[in-house]
Amino acid sequence: MVFDLKTVYLDKLLFKEFNLTEDKIKSSHFYDTDLEQDKEFYEITSFSDFFTKPGTGTVLVKEIQLGTMLTEVLILISFDEESGIVEINFSESELIEDNRLDKEKCLKLLEYFLSLMEHYDLKSVRFGYEPAVDDDTCLIELKPDVTQIKDLVDRL
Questions:
Q1: Report field, pTM of the whole predicted structure over 0.70
Q2: 126 by DSSP, 3-state: which?
Q3: Which of 28, 31, 70, 79 could pair with 51 in a Cys bridge, judged by C-beta atoms 3.0 to 4.6 Å apart?
């Protein structure tokens, strides 16, 4: 999944929506350009402030609730002062049950991100294989005017 986000929303997204805490994080890496040193997730009190300077960081989460529980999720955060990109990567097996796509899990995931779109001024959320930003690897693009997300899941 990949979406653009304004920097001012980053703390709220990471701490309130994704509920990221030190105990849920398997590993992380951020580089502080001012101090010229690596930082861990727990060492940064405000990501909105941290990313007022261009930078990138990664967080590997043990498990995260995104409408449905996902495990071993890699969150890539790449920001440039006012806005940036949040990319969320996980194994496709997270959405497979009995060798079939679990459409209920997919639906819950899409509903969750449709709700986030309303609260975080997201223009779209792209779901697909990496890189989901490319049209040929994007399976679904959620936009604010999408109302029939069940139809999108049924086409998968």
A1: yes
A2: strand
A3: 79
